Amino acid sequence: MSQQQTNNTTGFQITNQNTFEDTNRSVKYLCGDCDAEVALKRGDPIRCKECGYRVLYKQRTNRMIQFEAR
Questions:
Q1: Owning domain of residue 48
Q2: Could you point out which of 1, 26, 29, 62 has its C-alpha 20 to 30 Å from the C-alpha of 43?
Q3: pTM exceeds 0.70 for this model
């Protein structure tokens, strides 16, 4: 048999075994119409709580992110 037929890996590798989903954590967004800050949790409708507008922009992170360019 060839090597490809006996290898049953999918090509994905989990690097962090402590992954879990936190349903209580909210993510902050900005409303595209009234610029209000909207905190949404998983499963919440994507809608501004102030004006009802449905276009929300994710806020930029405060963490430093560095990319290596060549």
A1: 27-58
A2: 62
A3: no
